Amino acid sequence: MSEQESSSPKEEIIIASSASEEAPAPEVKTEAAETSHSHPDLSEKVKGAATAADLLSEIVQMAEDDFIPWEEVTLPSQGVYYGDRLPGGLVRVKAMGIHADKILATQRLAQTGQSIDYLFKHCVQLTDGFDAKDLLSGDRIFLLYVLRGITHGNIYEFIMKCPNCETSSMQSYDLNELADTITGPDPSIGEEPFKVILPYMSEVLDRNVWVRVRLLRGKDVSQMANRQKFSKRVRAGTVGRKRPSRDIVIDQTITENLALVITGFGGDGAEGEVHDESKIKALVDRMHAKDTATIRGFLRDNAPGIDTMIEVECPECSFEYRADLPITESFFRPAGDQQPGRA
């Protein structure tokens, strides 16, 4: 059995276009998602409409919140890492309407990675003064699936290419199953920023040394994605040059991304901690792969969110493998819009 993992943050994979390439349909079971199949009963409001003109008049006079109501959902983090700004992790969400379609179809927003932030402004209600960019990455991804679910349902259809025979096939997944993969906050690891001991560095220095790490926020994901895009342009020689460069440019985004989540450094027998960003970056550059893997493993295992790795079986060769649920421009399109033959 093999495993495929996405190399970039999931929420930044979504690109806006009115053309459909894949067709998903999620609905995550939480306190809010359990009511996602219910719709408002507005029959009484239009009961007296005798003509089409009367009916239309009644519809357009309805408040938008009556037509597409808000419902509560609990974030995987349960609000633990936001102080008292999101008590219990409760937020309000509503199904997407025409405004969301306009946002997703705006290429400028897609190219700058702002589509999700604008989508949240229209479809997610947070407490006053709370910026959606400050949500944990896992909470944001969770909300994307919830929004897709309450809008289009829980059956997600997508095209997957088999790593064994390279055949592209239509796959279907019930996103209600993601409810069983939710990871919540773990009180046993203490408060953020968390202390992570570096095994290799501790061994060679004969003393415990550690770093303080924090969880990724939405603004971090955007920053990481922008760095990666710029790095690709640099490696392709398209920044400040008329012709592509044949020079080998080492990708520094791995160091920069890791330094982004490390907030401090300390060690046994050494007074205080270091928080200087430039010194933290210099430390990361000298880290053993065992230490960087420890940090990434800690964040992966302890970050609240949902696990979107699923089991897939190729209908052509029966090869079984694990893959991340793909999210493309058609993630916010109804099931059935998928176009076979386009992977």
Detailed description of the structure:
The chain is an alpha+beta fold. 31% of the residues lie in helices and 15% in strands. The strands form four sheets. It has a three-stranded mixed beta sheet, with no helix packed on it. It has a three-stranded antiparallel beta sheet with strand order 2-3-4. β10 (309-313) and β11 form a beta hairpin. α8 runs antiparallel to α9. The longest helix has 18 residues, at 218-235.
Walk me through the topology.
Elements: E1 2-3, H1 52-61, H2 64-67, E2 71-74, E3 90-93, H3 98-104, H4 107-111, H5 115-123, E4 124-125, H6 137-152, E5 155-161, E6 168-174, E7 194-197, H7 199-205, E8 209-213, H8 218-235, H9 253-261, E9 262-267, H10 277-285, H11 289-302, E10 309-313, E11 320-324
Parallel strand pairs: 1-11
Antiparallel strand pairs: 2-3, 3-4, 5-6, 7-8, 8-9, 10-11
Concise description?
With 343 residues, the chain is an alpha+beta fold.
Spans of at least 5 consecutive residues with low confidence:
2-8, 13-37, 242-252
Q: Give me the Rg, rounded.
A: 23 Å
Largest sheet: 3 strands, mixed
Distance between the termini: 21 Å
Q: Give, in order, the helices and strands.
A: EHHEEHHHEHEEEHEHHEHHEE
Instruction: Provide the β-strand percentage band.
Output: 5-15%
Number of domains: 2
Shape: globular
Widest sheet, order of strands: 1-11-10
- Based on secondary structure, the structural category is alpha+beta
Mean pLDDT: 79
Helix content: 25-40%
Q: How many strands appear in the DSSP assignment?
A: 11
Number of helices: 11
